[in-house]
User: What shape does this take?
Amino acid sequence: MWLLDSLSGIYVVQTFLHSLIAILVIERAMQIWQIENPLTQFRYRIMTLVLPVCMLPLYHLINLGRSSFAFRQETAIFSMNKWLSLEIWDVIPLTSVFMLLLAGTSVVFFLQEVVPIMRDVFARKGDDLYASLSPDPWIEDLTKQMSEELGIGPPPVTLLEDSNPFIFTSGSKNHRLILTSGLIEALDREQLKSALAHELAHIARLSNATKWMIFVIRVLMFFNPIVLIVFRRIVQDDEHVCDDITVSLTKSPQALASTLKVFYSSHSEFFSDAFGGVKALKEGVENYSHNLLLKERIARLESAHGYEDKEFGWGKFLLTIAVVAVINYFVV
Assistant: This one.
């Protein structure tokens, strides 16, 4: 099989298979052990991305003959070589279907990740589009107070003159809290406190640095549809963790839920410009996906559903990793 005749082909096929095994085992383990703590779920799902990249070279160090024909035929419990040689209805080669899947995922990666980054880089080369305003002293004092509660240094606060309600954190090491005048106009003080607390929670968790680490893994497996799915789940887990930290600071889940509703746009806009071309369709899909994630977070906050697994169980975690590593050793 030509796809498995090169190191790059072996890497593509095996990281795909190993990601698939990892997500099946890890998701099933969390169901069996009833893991609902979002921080624990975040740690488990990170392994779905890390293990396929790290374990493949380790397997070859352990056994140089693992990629040999003899290992595939006599030792492996699953060999992609056999499956890729099959044909659907004796007409369509399974290899072609697999390659189309990888190509489609690569296109999605390019549109979702590469294009926005390039757009942002080119936009920064121009002049600043927004004027900076002096932030309200109340906002700076509240930011300092909550930062002390989280054990972090208070980040500088930048207020931009913009009617759109936005708040985000810039920087992976030297953080800055950026919000707009439109956000202050749209939120009351309790909601604004929740919005600030949520961004400070991201700073305390080093979310931006973590996302860059995950992005590097995504680049290494840009062709892998499993990584695309897991990445979304990990981002959502991180948001859940920060939501919980926010509620611990504000003592008001309802205030955060009402804050999120400000960023929730109508689903009816999904196909509002059906003939707007690829760009309109892409924006519609992103808008729809964004709303689904917000809707789930809002429902979670409003239900006030707690979880029993407060502590992280290292034994279960290491056992799960071991099971994934052992199974994937025999999947080539």
User: Anything to note?
Assistant: Residues 270 and 285 are 7 Å apart (CA to CA). The chain is about 65% helix and 5% strand.
